[in-house]
Amino acid sequence: MRYKWQTGAMAWLFHRITGAAVGVYLLLHILAQFGMKYDQKGLAAISNFLTHKAVVVVLLAFLIYHTLNGIRELIVDFGSGALYHKKLFWVMMVIGVVLFGAALLAV
Amino acid sequence: MALPTSHHSGAFHWLFQRITGILIAVVLVIHMGAVHFGASPVDLGSPFWKFFHVGFLIMLLYHILNGFWLMVEDYVHCNGLRVTLFGVAWIVGVSFLILGFVTLVPFGT
Q1: For testing contact with chain B, the best of A27, A47, A63, A71 (most B CBs within 10 A)
Q2: Does residue B5 form part of some domain?
Q3: Chain B contact present for A43, CB below 8 A
Q4: In this structure, is residue B4 part of a structural domain?
Q5: What are A3-41's pLDDT values in tens digits?
Q6: Residue A98: per-residue pLDDT
């Protein structure tokens, strides 16, 4: 499969990459919580990895991107977003940067 | 075994990916706000939060594994591997549903 370097295709491809990464994170999050509940020392390493600051920062960036681009996809699919999907992408990215900045302050 | 492909089952999965996506976005903001960025700790052992997180767990697992399957449909063209990955998705889904349940249901006890 080939991808063209255009806004829509890149937004969609990055949606997949962030989705896969966040999906793996959340499965590990479930596993780590299970480990804490049942005092499984072997799973503590997972918990340490998930709460590492660099990992949390990447998670927040990916989550914010995936959510905002997901909303953009909804507008494209169910509204008339196809007509202005590129503009919409950059509007979402501006909102995302603001949200990410606010999240960084709270981390 | 009839392989699930977008040819005959895609519309339902496509729609449900969007429905669960909207719900997850709302629930995620509440989860992050209350559990991870909250000013005061919440009682995760209360019936409300148990119900909330069990619902969150089910929607998330569906959204993650359905997303995984959408990618398999796009990138994996070998039928044997597709069947294997379909099985893997189900095993992961059921396993994590059980892991989540046994963590959440007795939470706080």
Answers
A1: A27
A2: no
A3: no
A4: no
A5: 667 888 899 999 999 999 999 999 999 999 999 999 888
A6: 97
Domain count across chain B: 1
Q: Over the stretch B83-103, which tens digit does the pLDDT of each residue have? A: 999 999 999 999 999 999 999
Q: Give the DSSP letter string of chain A.
A: ----SSHHHHHHHHHHHHHHHHHHHHHHHHHHHHHHHTT-GGGHHHHHHHTSHHHHHHHHHHHHHHHHHHHHHHHHHHSSGGGSHHHHHHHHHHHHHHHHHHHHHH-
The domains located in chain A, with CATH, are 7-106 (1.20.1300)
Does B95 map to a domain? yes
Q: For residue B82, what are the domain limits?
A: 10-104
Q: Model pTM?
A: 0.90
Q: Which residue has the higher pLDDT, B107 or B29?
A: B29
Mean pLDDT rounded to a whole number for chain B: 90
- With CB atoms and an 8 Å threshold, state whether B92 touches A37: no
CA distances from A19 to A11, A38, A86, B26, B71 (A): 12, 29, 20, 17, 11
CA distance B26 to chain A (A): 10
CATH number for B14: 1.20.1300.10
Sign of the CA dihedral B77, B83, B88, B90?
positive
Residue B40 clears pLDDT 90, i.e. is over it: no
